[in-house]
Amino acid sequence: MNPNEIIAERLVYDLPNILEPVNLRCLFPQEQPLEIELGSGDGSFLTSAAAKCPERNFIGVERLLGRVQKTERKGLRAGLSNMRIVRIESAYFLEYLLPRHSSTAIHIYFPDPWPKRKHRRHRLINERFPTLAAQALVPGGTLYLRTDDSDYFAQMKSVFAAVRGFQAELTPEALASLVTDFERDFNAQGIPTLRAAYRKL
Question: pLDDT tens for residues 93-117?
Answer without folding.
Answer: 999 999 999 999 999 999 988 667 7
